[in-house]
Specification:
Metallo-beta-lactamase, Chain A, Rossmann fold, 2 domains, 22 strands, globular
Protein backbone atom coordinates (compact mmCIF):
# COMPACT_ATOMS: atom_id res chain seq x y z
CA UNK A 1 0.00 0.00 0.00
CA UNK A 2 1.34 3.40 -0.99
CA UNK A 3 0.26 6.86 0.11
CA UNK A 4 1.36 10.08 -1.59
CA UNK A 5 0.60 13.45 0.03
CA UNK A 6 -0.41 16.03 -2.56
CA UNK A 7 -2.40 18.82 -0.90
CA UNK A 8 -2.62 20.53 2.50
CA UNK A 9 1.03 19.65 3.15
CA UNK A 10 2.57 22.27 5.45
CA UNK A 11 -0.36 24.48 4.53
CA UNK A 12 -4.06 24.55 5.38
CA UNK A 13 -5.86 24.39 2.05
CA UNK A 14 -6.22 21.99 -0.87
CA UNK A 15 -6.53 18.67 0.98
CA UNK A 16 -5.67 15.72 -1.27
CA UNK A 17 -4.01 12.41 -0.39
CA UNK A 18 -3.45 9.65 -2.95
CA UNK A 19 -3.63 5.96 -2.07
CA UNK A 20 -2.69 2.93 -4.15
CA UNK A 21 -3.96 -0.28 -2.58
CA UNK A 22 -3.35 -3.28 -4.84
CA UNK A 23 -5.20 -2.40 -8.07
CA UNK A 24 -7.29 0.42 -6.54
CA UNK A 25 -6.38 4.10 -6.79
CA UNK A 26 -8.14 6.31 -4.25
CA UNK A 27 -8.12 9.99 -3.30
CA UNK A 28 -8.81 11.09 0.24
CA UNK A 29 -10.42 14.49 -0.49
CA UNK A 30 -9.95 16.64 -3.58
CA UNK A 31 -9.91 20.20 -2.30
CA UNK A 32 -9.14 23.60 -3.76
CA UNK A 33 -5.93 25.33 -2.77
CA UNK A 34 -6.56 28.97 -1.75
CA UNK A 35 -3.86 31.58 -1.98
CA UNK A 36 -2.46 34.18 -4.36
CA UNK A 37 -4.26 34.17 -7.72
CA UNK A 38 -1.21 32.93 -9.69
CA UNK A 39 -0.59 30.06 -7.25
CA UNK A 40 -4.31 29.27 -7.14
CA UNK A 41 -4.47 28.53 -10.87
CA UNK A 42 -1.10 26.80 -11.13
CA UNK A 43 -1.80 24.44 -8.21
CA UNK A 44 -5.48 23.70 -8.87
CA UNK A 45 -5.54 23.42 -12.67
CA UNK A 46 -3.52 20.23 -13.07
CA UNK A 47 -3.01 16.88 -11.35
CA UNK A 48 0.72 16.18 -11.84
CA UNK A 49 0.94 13.03 -9.71
CA UNK A 50 -1.79 10.94 -11.35
CA UNK A 51 -4.22 10.81 -14.25
CA UNK A 52 -7.78 11.65 -13.11
CA UNK A 53 -9.22 8.88 -15.30
CA UNK A 54 -7.18 6.31 -13.35
CA UNK A 55 -8.75 7.16 -9.98
CA UNK A 56 -11.37 4.64 -8.86
CA UNK A 57 -12.78 6.42 -5.80
CA UNK A 58 -12.73 9.76 -4.05
CA UNK A 59 -13.45 9.42 -0.34
CA UNK A 60 -14.67 12.80 0.82
CA UNK A 61 -14.40 13.87 4.47
CA UNK A 62 -16.75 16.88 4.29
CA UNK A 63 -18.17 19.60 2.08
CA UNK A 64 -15.80 22.49 2.81
CA UNK A 65 -14.36 23.74 -0.47
CA UNK A 66 -10.75 23.21 0.62
CA UNK A 67 -11.65 19.50 0.83
CA UNK A 68 -14.15 19.01 -2.02
CA UNK A 69 -13.78 22.04 -4.29
CA UNK A 70 -11.54 20.57 -7.00
CA UNK A 71 -13.80 17.57 -7.69
CA UNK A 72 -15.50 19.23 -10.71
CA UNK A 73 -12.07 19.82 -12.26
CA UNK A 74 -11.14 16.18 -11.55
CA UNK A 75 -14.31 15.06 -13.36
CA UNK A 76 -13.71 17.54 -16.19
CA UNK A 77 -10.30 15.92 -16.72
CA UNK A 78 -11.54 12.35 -16.88
CA UNK A 79 -12.54 10.98 -13.45
CA UNK A 80 -15.58 8.67 -13.73
CA UNK A 81 -15.46 6.77 -10.42
CA UNK A 82 -17.55 7.11 -7.26
CA UNK A 83 -17.35 9.93 -4.73
CA UNK A 84 -18.10 8.33 -1.35
CA UNK A 85 -19.23 10.63 1.46
CA UNK A 86 -21.82 10.88 4.22
CA UNK A 87 -25.43 11.37 3.15
CA UNK A 88 -25.39 14.90 4.59
CA UNK A 89 -22.20 15.81 2.72
CA UNK A 90 -23.88 14.53 -0.45
CA UNK A 91 -26.72 17.04 0.10
CA UNK A 92 -24.34 19.89 0.90
CA UNK A 93 -22.04 19.29 -2.08
CA UNK A 94 -25.02 19.74 -4.41
CA UNK A 95 -25.10 23.36 -3.24
CA UNK A 96 -21.43 24.01 -2.51
CA UNK A 97 -19.98 22.75 -5.80
CA UNK A 98 -22.51 24.57 -7.97
CA UNK A 99 -21.74 27.77 -6.08
CA UNK A 100 -18.02 27.15 -6.55
CA UNK A 101 -18.57 26.72 -10.31
CA UNK A 102 -20.38 30.06 -10.36
CA UNK A 103 -17.45 31.70 -8.52
CA UNK A 104 -14.95 30.20 -11.00
CA UNK A 105 -16.93 31.68 -13.91
CA UNK A 106 -17.21 35.11 -12.27
CA UNK A 107 -13.53 35.13 -11.34
CA UNK A 108 -12.52 34.38 -14.94
CA UNK A 109 -14.87 37.16 -16.08
CA UNK A 110 -13.14 39.61 -13.71
CA UNK A 111 -9.65 38.59 -14.86
CA UNK A 112 -10.64 38.80 -18.52
CA UNK A 113 -11.83 42.40 -18.13
CA UNK A 114 -8.37 43.28 -16.83
CA UNK A 115 -6.67 41.23 -19.57
CA UNK A 116 -8.74 42.95 -22.26
CA UNK A 117 -7.56 46.39 -21.09
CA UNK A 118 -3.95 45.19 -21.14
CA UNK A 119 -4.24 43.38 -24.48
CA UNK A 120 -3.64 40.00 -22.85
CA UNK A 121 -5.31 36.74 -23.95
CA UNK A 122 -8.46 35.63 -22.06
CA UNK A 123 -8.40 32.89 -19.42
CA UNK A 124 -10.79 29.98 -18.95
CA UNK A 125 -12.46 29.30 -15.59
CA UNK A 126 -10.98 26.42 -13.62
CA UNK A 127 -14.37 24.78 -14.12
CA UNK A 128 -17.94 25.88 -14.76
CA UNK A 129 -21.34 25.30 -13.17
CA UNK A 130 -21.96 22.71 -15.89
CA UNK A 131 -18.79 20.86 -14.86
CA UNK A 132 -19.99 20.97 -11.27
CA UNK A 133 -23.36 19.51 -12.31
CA UNK A 134 -21.56 16.60 -14.01
CA UNK A 135 -19.60 15.86 -10.84
CA UNK A 136 -22.79 15.66 -8.76
CA UNK A 137 -23.83 12.56 -10.73
CA UNK A 138 -20.93 10.66 -9.14
CA UNK A 139 -21.78 11.41 -5.49
CA UNK A 140 -22.68 8.40 -3.38
CA UNK A 141 -23.83 9.20 0.15
CA UNK A 142 -23.90 6.66 2.98
CA UNK A 143 -24.97 7.07 6.64
CA UNK A 144 -22.55 7.24 9.53
CA UNK A 145 -21.50 3.79 10.85
CA UNK A 146 -22.60 1.92 7.72
CA UNK A 147 -19.67 0.02 6.22
CA UNK A 148 -19.05 0.42 2.48
CA UNK A 149 -17.04 -2.27 0.69
CA UNK A 150 -14.80 -0.97 -2.06
CA UNK A 151 -13.89 -4.60 -2.74
CA UNK A 152 -13.38 -7.78 -0.73
CA UNK A 153 -10.14 -6.37 0.71
CA UNK A 154 -11.03 -2.72 1.40
CA UNK A 155 -13.92 -1.34 3.43
CA UNK A 156 -14.62 2.11 4.84
CA UNK A 157 -16.79 3.39 7.67
CA UNK A 158 -17.62 7.01 8.50
CA UNK A 159 -17.83 8.42 12.04
CA UNK A 160 -18.91 11.91 13.07
CA UNK A 161 -15.89 14.26 13.12
CA UNK A 162 -17.82 17.00 14.97
CA UNK A 163 -16.32 19.63 12.65
CA UNK A 164 -19.29 20.71 10.53
CA UNK A 165 -22.60 19.13 9.57
CA UNK A 166 -21.89 15.82 7.82
CA UNK A 167 -18.13 15.84 8.47
CA UNK A 168 -16.54 12.42 8.78
CA UNK A 169 -13.64 10.55 10.27
CA UNK A 170 -12.86 7.81 7.73
CA UNK A 171 -11.67 4.43 8.95
CA UNK A 172 -10.34 2.15 6.23
CA UNK A 173 -9.93 -1.55 6.99
CA UNK A 174 -7.50 -3.10 4.53
CA UNK A 175 -6.50 -6.74 4.06
CA UNK A 176 -3.05 -6.84 2.51
CA UNK A 177 -0.26 -9.45 2.49
CA UNK A 178 -2.17 -11.56 4.98
CA UNK A 179 -2.51 -8.66 7.44
CA UNK A 180 -5.43 -6.48 8.53
CA UNK A 181 -4.54 -2.79 8.58
CA UNK A 182 -6.53 0.18 9.84
CA UNK A 183 -5.81 3.51 8.14
CA UNK A 184 -7.75 6.38 9.71
CA UNK A 185 -8.14 9.83 8.16
CA UNK A 186 -9.50 12.37 10.62
CA UNK A 187 -10.33 14.90 7.91
CA UNK A 188 -10.87 18.02 10.04
CA UNK A 189 -11.38 17.14 13.70
CA UNK A 190 -13.98 19.23 15.50
CA UNK A 191 -14.29 20.37 19.08
CA UNK A 192 -16.49 19.28 21.97
CA UNK A 193 -19.36 21.55 23.05
CA UNK A 194 -19.62 23.52 19.80
CA UNK A 195 -23.09 24.84 18.90
CA UNK A 196 -25.45 22.73 16.74
CA UNK A 197 -23.49 19.57 15.97
CA UNK A 198 -22.50 16.58 18.08
CA UNK A 199 -19.04 16.14 19.60
CA UNK A 200 -16.37 14.18 17.66
CA UNK A 201 -16.88 10.43 17.93
CA UNK A 202 -14.16 8.24 19.35
CA UNK A 203 -12.83 5.55 17.02
CA UNK A 204 -10.66 2.50 17.55
CA UNK A 205 -6.89 2.90 17.45
CA UNK A 206 -5.61 2.76 13.88
CA UNK A 207 -2.30 1.41 12.65
CA UNK A 208 -1.79 4.56 10.58
CA UNK A 209 -3.30 7.95 11.36
CA UNK A 210 -3.57 10.99 9.07
CA UNK A 211 -4.51 13.98 11.18
CA UNK A 212 -4.87 17.69 10.60
CA UNK A 213 -2.96 20.10 12.82
CA UNK A 214 -4.45 23.48 11.96
CA UNK A 215 -4.30 24.61 15.60
CA UNK A 216 -1.92 21.97 16.92
CA UNK A 217 0.24 24.62 18.57
CA UNK A 218 -2.51 26.88 19.91
CA UNK A 219 -5.31 27.05 22.41
CA UNK A 220 -8.78 28.44 21.69
CA UNK A 221 -10.99 30.39 24.00
CA UNK A 222 -13.47 27.91 25.52
CA UNK A 223 -16.72 27.65 23.50
CA UNK A 224 -18.61 28.57 26.69
CA UNK A 225 -17.07 32.08 26.54
CA UNK A 226 -18.52 32.84 23.11
CA UNK A 227 -21.82 34.22 24.35
CA UNK A 228 -20.13 36.59 26.81
CA UNK A 229 -17.85 37.94 24.07
CA UNK A 230 -20.76 38.39 21.63
CA UNK A 231 -22.83 40.15 24.30
CA UNK A 232 -19.94 42.55 25.00
CA UNK A 233 -19.55 43.26 21.26
CA UNK A 234 -23.31 43.91 21.02
CA UNK A 235 -23.36 46.32 23.97
CA UNK A 236 -20.34 48.23 22.63
CA UNK A 237 -21.88 48.51 19.17
CA UNK A 238 -25.14 49.86 20.63
CA UNK A 239 -23.19 52.32 22.77
CA UNK A 240 -21.34 53.64 19.70
CA UNK A 241 -24.46 53.48 17.51
CA UNK A 242 -22.49 51.34 15.07
CA UNK A 243 -22.83 48.25 12.92
CA UNK A 244 -21.22 44.86 13.46
CA UNK A 245 -19.81 43.44 10.22
CA UNK A 246 -19.04 39.71 10.40
CA UNK A 247 -17.21 37.92 7.58
CA UNK A 248 -18.34 34.31 7.96
CA UNK A 249 -18.21 31.15 5.91
CA UNK A 250 -21.66 30.37 4.51
CA UNK A 251 -21.33 26.80 5.67
CA UNK A 252 -20.95 26.14 9.38
CA UNK A 253 -19.88 29.43 10.90
CA UNK A 254 -22.94 31.39 9.75
CA UNK A 255 -25.33 28.81 11.23
CA UNK A 256 -23.39 28.81 14.52
CA UNK A 257 -23.64 32.59 14.77
CA UNK A 258 -27.34 32.71 13.93
CA UNK A 259 -28.16 30.14 16.61
CA UNK A 260 -26.01 31.95 19.20
CA UNK A 261 -27.65 35.29 18.47
CA UNK A 262 -31.04 33.54 18.71
CA UNK A 263 -30.13 32.33 22.20
CA UNK A 264 -28.75 35.72 23.28
CA UNK A 265 -31.75 37.63 21.95
CA UNK A 266 -34.15 35.27 23.74
CA UNK A 267 -32.27 35.85 26.99
CA UNK A 268 -31.46 39.58 26.80
CA UNK A 269 -34.27 40.91 24.55
CA UNK A 270 -31.98 42.74 22.11
CA UNK A 271 -33.86 44.40 19.26
CA UNK A 272 -30.91 44.97 16.90
CA UNK A 273 -31.65 43.52 13.41
CA UNK A 274 -29.48 40.77 11.91
CA UNK A 275 -29.03 40.50 8.15
CA UNK A 276 -27.59 37.27 6.75
CA UNK A 277 -26.45 38.55 3.38
CA UNK A 278 -25.53 35.41 1.46
CA UNK A 279 -27.83 33.39 -0.80
CA UNK A 280 -25.54 30.40 -0.27
CA UNK A 281 -25.94 30.70 3.52
CA UNK A 282 -29.73 30.61 3.11
CA UNK A 283 -29.55 27.42 1.00
CA UNK A 284 -27.18 25.71 3.42
CA UNK A 285 -29.29 26.70 6.41
CA UNK A 286 -32.23 24.94 4.76
CA UNK A 287 -30.13 21.77 4.51
CA UNK A 288 -29.21 22.11 8.19
CA UNK A 289 -32.91 22.29 9.04
CA UNK A 290 -33.52 19.01 7.17
CA UNK A 291 -30.88 17.13 9.16
CA UNK A 292 -31.93 17.54 12.77
CA UNK A 293 -30.65 13.99 13.39
CA UNK A 294 -27.15 15.49 13.44
CA UNK A 295 -27.94 18.14 16.06
CA UNK A 296 -26.66 18.10 19.63
CA UNK A 297 -29.08 18.04 22.57
CA UNK A 298 -29.38 21.82 22.96
CA UNK A 299 -30.22 22.43 19.30
CA UNK A 300 -32.54 19.41 19.19
CA UNK A 301 -34.50 21.00 22.02
CA UNK A 302 -35.36 23.96 19.77
CA UNK A 303 -36.74 21.56 17.17
CA UNK A 304 -38.70 19.55 19.73
CA UNK A 305 -40.28 22.77 21.04
CA UNK A 306 -41.34 23.84 17.55
CA UNK A 307 -38.92 26.77 17.60
CA UNK A 308 -36.79 26.80 14.41
CA UNK A 309 -33.19 27.33 15.60
CA UNK A 310 -32.13 29.44 12.60
CA UNK A 311 -35.25 31.59 12.21
CA UNK A 312 -36.41 34.29 14.63
CA UNK A 313 -37.92 37.76 14.52
CA UNK A 314 -34.72 39.80 14.27
CA UNK A 315 -33.06 37.63 11.58
CA UNK A 316 -33.52 38.43 7.89
CA UNK A 317 -31.98 36.38 5.09
CA UNK A 318 -30.99 38.58 2.13
CA UNK A 319 -31.26 37.12 -1.35
CA UNK A 320 -31.26 39.81 -4.06
CA UNK A 321 -28.45 42.19 -4.97
CA UNK A 322 -30.85 45.12 -4.52
CA UNK A 323 -31.62 44.08 -0.94
CA UNK A 324 -27.93 43.70 -0.26
CA UNK A 325 -27.14 47.18 -1.60
CA UNK A 326 -29.92 48.69 0.51
CA UNK A 327 -27.96 47.70 3.64
CA UNK A 328 -25.48 50.47 2.72
CA UNK A 329 -28.13 53.02 3.69
CA UNK A 330 -28.60 51.73 7.24
CA UNK A 331 -27.87 54.44 9.78
CA UNK A 332 -28.74 52.55 12.95
CA UNK A 333 -27.06 49.61 14.72
CA UNK A 334 -27.29 46.32 12.84
CA UNK A 335 -25.45 43.03 12.46
CA UNK A 336 -24.45 42.01 8.94
CA UNK A 337 -23.18 38.46 8.45
CA UNK A 338 -21.81 37.90 4.97
CA UNK A 339 -19.43 35.66 2.99
CA UNK A 340 -16.70 34.92 2.26
CA UNK A 341 -15.14 34.22 5.62
CA UNK A 342 -11.62 35.16 4.49
CA UNK A 343 -12.90 38.37 2.82
CA UNK A 344 -11.56 37.35 -0.58
CA UNK A 345 -14.79 37.29 -2.61
CA UNK A 346 -18.51 37.85 -2.22
CA UNK A 347 -20.76 40.50 -0.74
CA UNK A 348 -18.65 40.94 2.40
CA UNK A 349 -16.23 43.06 0.34
CA UNK A 350 -18.93 45.65 -0.32
CA UNK A 351 -19.90 45.76 3.36
CA UNK A 352 -16.28 46.19 4.41
CA UNK A 353 -15.71 48.94 1.85
CA UNK A 354 -18.78 50.79 3.13
CA UNK A 355 -18.11 50.37 6.85
CA UNK A 356 -14.43 49.81 7.61
CA UNK A 357 -13.53 53.51 7.79
CA UNK A 358 -16.25 54.35 10.34
CA UNK A 359 -14.95 54.20 13.92
CA UNK A 360 -18.45 53.50 15.27
CA UNK A 361 -18.45 50.10 13.57
CA UNK A 362 -16.98 46.75 14.58
CA UNK A 363 -15.41 44.13 12.32
CA UNK A 364 -15.83 40.78 14.06
CA UNK A 365 -13.44 38.10 12.77
CA UNK A 366 -14.76 34.64 13.68
CA UNK A 367 -12.76 32.14 11.65
CA UNK A 368 -9.41 31.05 10.25
CA UNK A 369 -7.86 33.35 7.64
CA UNK A 370 -5.13 31.99 5.39
CA UNK A 371 -1.92 34.01 4.84
CA UNK A 372 -2.19 36.89 2.34
CA UNK A 373 -6.00 37.03 2.53
CA UNK A 374 -7.80 40.29 3.33
CA UNK A 375 -9.27 38.66 6.43
CA UNK A 376 -5.77 37.83 7.73
CA UNK A 377 -4.59 41.42 7.09
CA UNK A 378 -7.55 42.89 8.97
CA UNK A 379 -7.23 40.44 11.88
CA UNK A 380 -3.50 41.24 12.19
CA UNK A 381 -4.24 44.98 12.45
CA UNK A 382 -2.93 46.09 9.07
CA UNK A 383 -4.07 49.49 7.84
CA UNK A 384 -4.70 50.58 5.19
CA UNK A 385 -5.99 47.51 3.36
CA UNK A 386 -6.97 47.14 -0.29
CA UNK A 387 -10.58 46.36 -1.24
CA UNK A 388 -11.45 46.25 -4.96
CA UNK A 389 -8.01 47.71 -5.63
CA UNK A 390 -8.59 50.83 -3.50
CA UNK A 391 -6.99 51.58 -0.14
CA UNK A 392 -9.15 51.88 2.98
CA UNK A 393 -8.01 52.89 6.47
CA UNK A 394 -9.19 50.47 9.14
CA UNK A 395 -10.91 52.80 11.58
CA UNK A 396 -13.56 50.31 12.73
CA UNK A 397 -12.81 48.35 15.89
CA UNK A 398 -11.52 44.86 15.02
CA UNK A 399 -12.42 41.99 17.36
CA UNK A 400 -11.00 38.49 16.76
CA UNK A 401 -13.04 35.63 18.21
CA UNK A 402 -11.48 32.17 17.83
CA UNK A 403 -13.71 30.36 20.32
CA UNK A 404 -16.01 29.36 17.45
CA UNK A 405 -13.25 27.63 15.53
CA UNK A 406 -14.47 24.27 14.28
CA UNK A 407 -10.93 22.83 14.47
CA UNK A 408 -9.61 21.14 17.60
CA UNK A 409 -6.84 22.99 19.42
CA UNK A 410 -3.77 21.41 21.01
CA UNK A 411 -5.47 20.45 24.26
CA UNK A 412 -8.50 19.03 22.45
CA UNK A 413 -6.25 16.99 20.12
CA UNK A 414 -4.37 15.53 23.08
CA UNK A 415 -7.63 14.68 24.84
CA UNK A 416 -8.88 12.92 21.72
CA UNK A 417 -5.60 11.09 21.09
CA UNK A 418 -5.48 9.90 24.71
CA UNK A 419 -8.08 7.29 23.71
CA UNK A 420 -5.61 5.65 21.32
CA UNK A 421 -3.31 2.76 22.26
CA UNK A 422 0.19 4.18 21.66
CA UNK A 423 1.61 0.69 21.23
CA UNK A 424 -0.77 -0.09 18.35
CA UNK A 425 -0.42 3.27 16.61
CA UNK A 426 2.46 2.69 14.16
CA UNK A 427 2.71 6.07 12.47
CA UNK A 428 1.11 9.53 12.55
CA UNK A 429 1.08 11.87 9.53
CA UNK A 430 0.51 15.56 10.26
CA UNK A 431 -1.16 17.57 7.47
CA UNK A 432 -3.49 20.58 7.06
CA UNK A 433 -1.55 23.15 9.05
CA UNK A 434 1.06 25.86 8.60
CA UNK A 435 4.55 24.37 8.88
CA UNK A 436 5.40 26.12 12.17
CA UNK A 437 2.13 24.90 13.66
CA UNK A 438 2.79 21.30 12.62
CA UNK A 439 6.39 21.33 13.90
CA UNK A 440 5.23 22.48 17.33
CA UNK A 441 2.39 19.93 17.29
CA UNK A 442 4.94 17.21 16.48
CA UNK A 443 7.08 18.28 19.48
CA UNK A 444 4.06 18.16 21.78
CA UNK A 445 3.06 14.68 20.57
CA UNK A 446 6.61 13.39 21.01
CA UNK A 447 6.66 14.80 24.52
CA UNK A 448 3.51 12.77 25.16
CA UNK A 449 5.37 9.64 23.93
CA UNK A 450 3.70 9.28 20.53
CA UNK A 451 6.19 7.68 18.15
CA UNK A 452 7.04 7.78 14.46
CA UNK A 453 5.51 11.12 13.48
CA UNK A 454 5.96 12.58 10.01
CA UNK A 455 5.20 15.99 8.47
CA UNK A 456 5.08 15.23 4.71
CA UNK A 457 6.12 17.62 1.97
CA UNK A 458 4.09 17.88 -1.21
CA UNK A 459 4.76 14.76 -3.28
CA UNK A 460 6.23 12.70 -0.43
CA UNK A 461 5.20 9.05 -0.60
CA UNK A 462 5.27 6.27 1.96
CA UNK A 463 4.91 2.51 1.63
CA UNK A 464 2.82 1.17 4.50
Amino acid sequence: MLIKFIGATKTVTGSMHYLIIKDKKILLDCGLYHGKRKDYYEINANFPYFQPAEIDYVILSHAHIDHCGNIPNLVKRGFEGKIICTSVTDDLCRVMLLDSGYIQEKDAEYVNKKHFKKGLPPVEPLYTQKDAEESLKLLYGIPYHKTFEIDEKIEITFYDAGHILGSAITQMKIKTNGKNLNLTYLGDLGRPKLPIIKDPELVETPDYLITEGTYGARFHQPPQEVKNILIEVLFNALKRNGKIIIPAFSFGRTQQLVLLFHEIFDEYFFSIPIFIDSPLSAKITEIYSKHAECFDEETSRYVQNGNPPFKFAQATYIESVEESKSLNDLNEPAIIISASGMCETGRILHHLANNIEDSRNTILIVGYNAPHTLGRKISEGQSPVKIFGDEYKVKAKVVVLDALSAHADQKEFLNYFSNFDKNKLRKIFLVHGDESELIEFERVLERENYKNISIPDKGDEFHL
